[in-house]
Structure formats: C-alpha cells, structure tokens
C-alpha cells in the first residue's frame, strides 16, 4: 500500500477546483459577457460544462470518506455523532469566514455595480439558514455561489454515515457476515435508487439523494478492498462501467458519464494497489488540492470585487475584462490558500465555530443596518 497521500486524488481535486472557478467566472459576468464576443467557444464550454467538476468532487468525496470510516466500522464502537459533528464543523467554519467576506464585498460594491449576481441584503432567516446549511431546502437566496454544494456534501456525508451506523448495530445484533458488507449493501441500494429514480427529477437537486449516485460510486471503490469479496478491482471497474452503460441507455446524462469515468479510474488505481505515481508529486498540485475547498468558498466574493472594479474602469474593453478574469482566478487561489493555512487547517471546535458564527451574524447585521 502507498502512503495516505494520493497523487491521483490530489490531481482530481486540483483539476475540479480550477474548473469550477472558471465555470463561475463564465456564468456570473459581466466580464465573461465581454469576453464571449471575442472567445465564444471557450466561454460557452466553461458555461455549459464547467459544472461537471462537481461530479469529480462527489466521487472523490465518497471515496475518501469510505476509506476513512472503514476501519472504524469494524471497531467495537462507531462514534456516529462525533463524526457527524466534526464534519459539520469542518465544512461550516471556513464557509462562515468566506461568507463574511462575500457579504461585505456585496454590500460594498452594490452602489457602484448593478448586476444579477449580487444577492439582496441579508435577512435574519437567511443568516440562520446559512449557518444550518438549510438555505436551499427553505428556498432562500444564497449569499454566494456554491453554498448549495456545501449543504449537499453534508447531507451525503450524513446519509452514508447513517448507513454505517445501522450496519454497525445490525452486525452487533446478528453476529453474521461482516459490517463492511452490510454498509456496502446499503450504499449500493441508495446508489441504485439515486441513479434510476431520484437523479431523474431536477426538482430534487436540493437534496443529497439526487447526488448519491455519484457519491455512492466513490463509496464503493473506497470500501471494496476491505469487503473480503473475491472480485478483483479490475472486475469492479468493469462492473462500474457496465452499470454506467445501463444508466446511459436508461437516461443519458453527461454528468453521470463523468462520475462513472472518475469511479473507473479510481478502481483501476486501487487495482494497482495504489502504487505511487512520482510524476504527479508536484508541490503545486498538492497545495491546490489541500486548499481546494477554501478556494471554492472564497472565489465568488473575489470575482464580485474584481468585476465591480473592471465594470467601473473599462467595462467594454476586451483586454481589461480578460485581465480581470485572470486576476479573479489568481486572487482566488491566493486568498483560498490563506484561508486554508490560517483557518481550515486548524482543528475544528465548537469554540471556533461560535467565533465565526458570531462574526458572520455581526457582519450581516451591520450590512442590514447600513443598507
């Protein structure tokens, strides 16, 4: 076995991080509107297909979580609530810090920059909903692009963790079979339900069940080595591929084709016993992978600020808008790295959560008072 550090996972996370930033830059003009006239193919591709980066994050997320839980499932105690709380804190603490920045930037540029990408002034209900990751299920406007994904990530984590806890109790009661196979069976059931039922309803995008088809593929691959089944990982890759073909014939979906492709690549990587790939051990890939979540959180606020500056100082200039988009990208990477180093890399705690929740409430209150 290789070390815990995975060069392949680093590459996937780094690639998806870059792609989602450029997708949002193309989606939330006005800089991209000007560049579209000069490079319609590029902006059109990023606009139409950049969101596929989410599928990479989903599969990789399931894969990493399965590998981190799998040995815990076999222990006498499976600490469900502590794992769930730790995940919530890890997701929400940097999110609140990024939202403080985005809400402040939105209020600052609003008098000089009228655009549909600006959210309205916060309301108390919105503030509470963002802290609890409920803004989408309550049909409230989000303060930043991508907040929906954080809520979905937590829902998926909770669903998978519930299956693990049930499997653990089931194994303790029955004493037959293995807890890992029981968990895998439940993950497989949810994945198939999502693939052929829940994922077909666009109105279900606010729920984790809609995305479990992709997340579940990662769970399968991440847990397969410990199931004790005689099927090799090469065979697993073929099974995943065949299921992908069946899903495509049932209802063609490009997003799922990407998810299946990532799952197959991960299965083949597992089949090689996760041998190290030295040519992928570039420091910048590792750094981008580590900070990918923080970068994802801050990039929208950065793009709003840069868009406002460009809009008021050369809104029709192609070079100015091209430089603006590039500056948004670079500044997002730098600010995301800073957020990761100063906050995300810290051990999450209730104290840290309460500090940033209070800061977020104070920021939104100030904006509501001054607007």
How does this model look, in words?
The protein has 371 residues and is mainly alpha-helical. It has one domain (7-370). It has 15 helices and no strands. Helix 4 crosses helix 9 (208-224) and helix 5 (80-109) runs antiparallel to helix 14.
Please describe the structure with a list of short key phrases separated by commas or semicolons.
371 residues, mainly alpha
**Termini gap:** 57 Å
| Count of discrete alpha- or pi-helical segments spanning 4 or more residues | 15
User: In what range is the share of β-strand residues?
Assistant: under 5%
Number of strands: 0
General form: globular
Can you lay out the helices and strands and say which pair or pack?
Elements: H1 7-27, H2 31-38, H3 40-49, H4 53-73, H5 80-109, H6 124-131, H7 147-174, H8 179-196, H9 208-224, H10 233-250, H11 254-271, H12 283-290, H13 292-311, H14 318-344, H15 350-370
Helix pairs in contact: 1-3, 1-4, 1-12, 1-13, 1-14, 2-3, 2-14, 4-7, 4-9, 4-11, 5-7, 5-13, 5-14, 5-15, 6-15, 7-8, 7-9, 8-9, 9-11, 10-11, 13-14
């Amino acid at each position: 076995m290789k070390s815990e550090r995975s060069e392949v996972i680093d590459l996937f996370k780094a690639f998806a991080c870059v792609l989602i930033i450029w997708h949002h830059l193309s989606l939330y003009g006005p800089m991209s509107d000007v560049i579209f006239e000069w490079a319609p193919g590029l902006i059109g591709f990023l606009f139409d297909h950049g969101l596929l980066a989410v599928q990479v994050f989903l599969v990789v997320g399931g894969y990493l979580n399965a590998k981190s839980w799998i040995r815990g499932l076999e222990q006498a105690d499976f600490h469900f609530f502590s794992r769930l709380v730790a995940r919530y804190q890890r997701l929400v603490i940097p999110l609140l810090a990024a939202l403080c920045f985005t809400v402040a930037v939105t209020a600052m540029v609003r008098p000089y920059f009228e655009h549909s990408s600006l959210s309205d002034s916060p309301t108390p209900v919105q503030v509470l909903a963002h802290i609890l990751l409920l803004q989408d299920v309550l049909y409230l406007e989000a303060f930043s692009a991508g907040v929906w994904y954080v809520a979905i990530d937590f829902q998926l984590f909770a669903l998978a963790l519930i299956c693990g806890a049930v499997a653990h109790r089931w194994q303790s009661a029955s004493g037959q079979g293995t807890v890992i196979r029981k968990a895998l069976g439940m993950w497989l059931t949810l994945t198939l339900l999502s693939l052929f039922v829940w994922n077909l309803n666009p109105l279900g995008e606010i729920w984790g069940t809609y995305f479990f088809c992709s997340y579940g593929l990662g769970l399968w691959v991440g847990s397969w080595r410990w199931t004790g089944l005689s099927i090799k990982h090469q065979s697993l890759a073929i099974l995943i591929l065949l299921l992908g073909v069946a899903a495509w014939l049932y209802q063609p979906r490009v997003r799922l084709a990407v998810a299946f492709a990532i799952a197959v690549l991960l299965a083949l990587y597992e089949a090689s016993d996760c041998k190290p790939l030295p040519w992928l051990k570039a420091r910048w890939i590792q750094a981008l992978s580590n900070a990918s979540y923080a970068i994802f959180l801050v990039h929208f606020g950065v793009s709003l600020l840069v868009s406002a500056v460009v809009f008021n100082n050369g809104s029709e200039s192609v070079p100015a808008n091209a430089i603006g988009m590039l500056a948004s990208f670079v500044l997002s990477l730098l600010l995301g790295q800073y957020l990761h180093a100063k906050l995300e890399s810290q051990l999450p705690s209730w104290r840290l959560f309460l500090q940033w929740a209070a800061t977020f409430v104070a920021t939104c209150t100030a904006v509501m008072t001054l607007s």
